[in-house]
Amino acid sequence: MASKYHVRSVSFPSRSYPAIQRIEQELDKLNQWEVSSNSIAGSICNGLSGLEDLYKGVDDLLNLASSQQVLSRHENEKCLDELLDGSVRLLDVCSIARDILLRFREQVQALQSAFRRRKGDSSIESSVATFTCFRKKMKRDAKKLIASLKQMDKKLGASSLLDQDRNLSEVIKVIREVNVINCSIFQSLLVFLSTSSKPKQCRWSLVSKLMLKEGIDCEEKRENEIETAGAALNELSGSEKVKNAQMKLEALEMSIYDLENCLERLFRPLIKSRSSLLNIISQ
């Protein structure tokens, strides 16, 4: 019976551990995602693409026998629960955000069609009103998701690693860091969708601030494609302004399409990461 409780020591170098090292390198690259483009949507796309690369490293880490052994120990159940809760919450946010973007793009396309038909000012006004109504609903939905991410951010690090062995601490810590940057990028996407004014500086919990390196000022002036299109729709008098609104809507549609694709590509590694965690628990 004694052997049932004896676990062979698993030893791997901390910072030289290749899988962890790769994740940390990707995290370093992501530190500059917010200033990687002159538009907000472009920066978010770059951040989402960086997350996709980041989760390849997470997948490698979770598939290592040494990682699976330290994570599957019964006494580490609380840490695993935290990771599982985070993975399902991030999956939910990613899925809902994809649906919001799809419906948003459909609304933009419908408005573009109304401009092309040009059956009369009243027709365009009606289409703009429908678009504005959708944007209000989109803001409400996005804010609900932001609240969910903030709850997750508060829970990150709820289970202490002080009494855990070094090997487990290394694995848990780096996955927490991944979750933190994921939360940050998802929240920036949702703020982009939920506000018509310049977003305030991002506020994160103490855990996030400790894990992330020097933050980027979220208030830096960059083009917000939604604001630009909205401003153009508010000034439709004259053919030139109508043409300008059409151009802004086309640019917005392209930005939404790019964001959709980025979320679609990220969704698969998020599923894979959760599946790996579930497999470890079932061992």
UniProtKB/TrEMBL annotation:
InterPro entries hit by this protein: BPS1_pln
Transmembrane segments: none
A biological-process GO annotation: shoot system development
A Pfam family assignment: BPS1
Highest rank taxon of the organism: Eukaryota
PANTHER family: DOMAIN PROTEIN, PUTATIVE (DUF241)-RELATED, OS06G0725500 PROTEIN
Name of this protein: DUF241 domain protein
